[in-house]
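Homework help board

Subject: predicted structure for assignment chain

Our instructor gave us this sequence and asked us to write out the predicted structure in token form, then describe one feature. I got the tokens but I'm not sure how to describe them. Can anyone check?
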Amino acid sequence: MDYIDPHIHMVSRTTDDYATLARMGCVAMSEPAFWAGYDRGSVDGFRDYFRQLTETEPKRAAAYGIQHFTWLCINAKEAENVSLSRDVIAMIPEFLEAANVLGIGEIGLNKNTRNESIIFLEHLELAIKHNQSILIHTPHLEDKFQGTRMILDMLSDDQRLDRTRVLVDHVEEHTIAEVLDRGFWAGMTLYPVTKCTPERAADMIEMTGGERLLVNSAGDWGPSKPTAVPDLIFELRRRGTRESLIKKVVYDNPIEFFSQSSNFKFKPRDVS
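My token output:
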């Protein structure tokens, strides 16, 4: 089955991973801007990173028949530095016309601080000004619920936002319902240790029916598995889930959400 990984950090992966993903059926992916494993010290460091996302990674992916898209921001971990964050936000428009940029992300909260909230709101302003879709990171905390509620309240307070163009990622059992009830898209991240297992994700798909729901591997520098989406496909098939629902979650839904971005020029595999 062809599938799309809506959130995977390929700058941290090898070309072997691209080859494996292609063999498993991955035909497209989107890569949000994120932490590099260390805090960057200048806006030029981010400019070079954005060139990597808009120039280098699309070529690496294309060599294996995978279409690569991306999102731009300064991530929540580094948003505590308000001065640097504002410099990066001011620089982002230089890249918004790049052919593979889908929007602003992954923005959100890390430790639920005041500075993180300030920069989150300034990213929202950037997205609204430039008519961009938004990809949200919810925090890796024991109290994920509090951070998610803070994010949803900030989003809901801005009446200019089109909620159908906002993807709130890393949802779990205690946050998914409110994200969907407020009219946003929800993303489930499959990690081998934290976030969701394929079994838990399958439970949530059964619970919600798969509407406005995406699933991703978020493969990055830490413990992660880039083939986690196929793992979910296998788990759903083991349960006897109908193929149309599986395809909806791993293929149709990403296309529906991403198609709201003018740069999403996805070309399905030719099966003739």
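Reply (TA_rk): Your tokens look well-formed. For the description, you could write something like this. The chain has nine helices and eight strands. That's the kind of observation they're looking for.
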